[in-house]
Amino acid sequence: MSRDPATLLRQHGVQVTAQRLAILRAVSGRPHGTAESIAEDVRNDIGAISRQAVYDALGMLCEKGLIRRIQPAGSPALYEDRIGDNHHHLICRACGKTVDVDCAVGVIPCLTANADSGFRIDEAEVIYWGACPECLAKTPGAEVEQS
Questions:
Q1: CA dist 120 to 11, 83, 113, 116, Å?
Q2: pLDDT confidence of residue 117
Q3: Alpha helices, DSSP H only, in the chain?
Q4: Which of 103, 10, 30, 24 is nearest to 67 (CA)?
Q5: pLDDT tens, position by position, 99-121
């Protein structure tokens, strides 16, 4: 998060509280963190906070466009503060490591809807699944394909 969290909250009409500031710091410090891992970081930062308060704040911060929630199939929601661009994610099936991937360039048939059903499409969400280099290194006989 490049700008001051308190200023961001005010600019979005959100009351500045110690809990909200701690949650923004935790999301910034742990990109692609789960609500549980963010709550743990917040507790380490400011002390007691209820799980429900963390979930409520994360929901509100997503609604206000201050953070982004991604929901990989079969996984808990992940939160990040990289907003304002249409980037995608790469997730390791073995360990869950998640990294950002900038949008593909060139001819991208999967990002252009065959039929828009009257929608004005403004974002495409893509999640690539595979095995991260660390997990591949632990697997005998596995090779990392370089492109």
A1: 27, 20, 11, 7
A2: 83
A3: 5-11, 18-29, 35-46, 51-63, 133-138
A4: 24
A5: 998 876 655 555 667 777 888 77
> Whole-model pTM?
0.81
Contact (Cβ atoms closer than 8 angstroms) between residue 66 and residue 77: no
- Name the packing angle between helices 35-46 and 18-29 (round to 10°): 120
91's enclosing H/E stretch is: strand 88-92
- Domains of the chain, each with CATH number or no CATH: 5-70 (1.10.10.10), 85-138 (3.30.1490.190)
> 19 is written with which tokens?
């809990």
Structure tokens at 133: 């280099």
Question: How confident is residue 47, by pLDDT bands cut at 50, 70 and 90?
Answer: very high
